[in-house]
Structure of Nicotinamide phosphoribosyltransferase:
Amino acid sequence: MFNPILNTDSYKTSHFVQYPPQTSRVFAYAESRGGRYDETLFFGLQAILKAEFGRPITRRDVDEAQDLLRDHGVPFNTRGWDLLLHRHDGRLPLEIRAVPEGTVVPTHNVLMTVVNTDPDFAWLPSYVETALLRIWYPVTVATISWQVRQIIRDALVETADDPEAELPFKLHDFGARGVSSEQSAALGGLAHLVNFKGTDTLSAIVAGRRLYNEPMAGFSIPAAEHSTITSWGRDGEAEAYANMIARFGKPGALFAVVSDSYDLYNAVEHLWGEQLRQKVIDSGATLVVRPDSGDPVSVVAKTMALLGERFGTDRNSKGYKVLRNVRVIQGDGVNPESIAAILARITAEGFSASNIAFGMGGALLQRVDRDTQGFAYKASAAEVAGTWRDVFKDPVTDHQKKSKRGLLGLVADARHGFATAPLGADFAPVDGGTNLLRPVWRDGKLLVDDSLAMIRERAASFSLPTAALA
């Protein structure tokens, strides 16, 4: 079991003696300072609090940290951690406020604030920065997923009969094997499931149950990989495909088959489209063909055209072609830009976005970092000798790193939906209104335990650019 005291940066262990004398409270905030996208979808704080803040610190933790940090060469706040054990039974005397998870907020706004509730622990809000700032990861994944949702939704609205029914299964998480740890797979995979319901990341399903009260956060279908096809030999390719129909081809079912092990276009045109065509139709299932190599835009377009020729199409109410008995899933080279390009190509050629789903791996869960959305956690105010003073930096060498100052909250704003606002000493907005950052944690207790279903509703309510705060 990890030691919460050591879940920080080494240099922070010396900060308890660096604040001015008589410092009784420190107020800190987290924000996205801007990056790839102009909005962020807030998600993951509840998971971090449950997983990393819920267990009280013990005497064993204190002793271990003291020994390790002494040998490591940095100070240890023996008095502070002993006081935490005796006065607070090992629970952190902090109040954490945050915007409700699932809320989409323009960048450069405060998303979360932290302040100590015991004047002897003014050093603590900064000490927990390392653990809390890792919120950047689920927020960034959720944001990318949400942005892709907008791209796909727009295409479905234009070309599909029932956009809202189809949308939840149009982006599938293929990223479990491409992340640095199972913890990343769980948290990042669950962040994606705020926006969609398709995933092959089982760790995310477990996380949904344990951390967000969701019995089943996502779904998958039977699918082939190259080894299950190529193990039949090149001459047995058609047999391998026929086996998939026999095993999974039930009325109303879906199953996916990677079809580019040798010659994708031959497989689509002749094996699926001629030799096995009637078996696919008679099965009553939907075959999902997966190309897995080449230029995603041109390969998907040609695959769809060949399937249309062999299986036929119907015109939907918006005049776009919908494949009979088959669909396509593209899981290679998938990112927000290629998704937009693929959708633009196939719809320009008269095919509905109903015909395709996407599988996104590294670009969803791993090809991100803290700078993708410019996340920062900074102290902005300190109470010294009973008076609050602003705490901020403004480097002359880089004004982009200027931090916010004072006690801060988030309020509704008619123009942008949200705005960061100054708070008074009573933690209420100076100019009136309500601080939308609600208390989620206080003195070792979780105050809000949202379900994934509730978070999904919030995120979906922000689907349109004109959506206002509900």
